[in-house]
Amino acid sequence: MSTDPFDLDSADELRRSVGVLVRAVRDRTAHESDGQIETLGFLMRDGAQSIAALARLRRIRHQSASAVVAELERAGLVARASDPDDARGVLITLTTAGSAVVTESRRLRAGVVLEAARESLSIDERALLARVPALLDALSEAMADR
Questions:
Q1: Backbone CA torsion sign across 58, 62, 67, 70
Q2: Euclidean distance between CA atoms 84 and 140, whole angstroms
Q3: Which helix (H) or strand (E) holds 89?
């Protein structure tokens, strides 16, 4: 018999809870489409990308990524630039306005989480919650390494 308090049921409950939290934050803060903000976020984190790379990152079809990029370009949030490694290639880059949208979106989402934590959790629970991101990062890294 295992004495590990984190078992399959706990893992399933954690997975479910993280999903519920992500959806709750998204529901409270949705302004741009999820696809647009996700695309902008990848560009901010990873730098300029081709449309094909963005499609792979988002796990969508090239045509869908192209449509999202076109919308973002019309809004002035991304721009196209020549790929220095491929004379025929084009990279999608984040504009200053696009960077500001990502920064504001992240601030807004974090604020929603902070407000809910302050309203519903004790100081001791919030202290425990402050340790959770490092634990989730370690789990994510362990799964990526497999």
A1: positive
A2: 32
A3: strand 86-94
Three-class DSSP category at 75: coil
- Helix or strand run (H / E) with residue 83: strand 78-83
What does R_g of the chain's alpha carbons equal in angstroms?
Answer: 19
Structure tokens at 27: 């529901």
pTM, full prediction? 0.80
Per-residue pLDDT tens listing for the chain (146 residues): 668 999 999 999 999 999 999 889 988 887 657 889 999 999 999 999 999 999 999 999 999 999 999 999 999 999 999 988 888 889 999 999 999 999 999 999 999 999 999 999 999 999 999 999 999 999 999 999 87
- Helix H segments across 30-122? 34-46, 51-58, 62-74, 96-120
Residue 119, amino acid: E
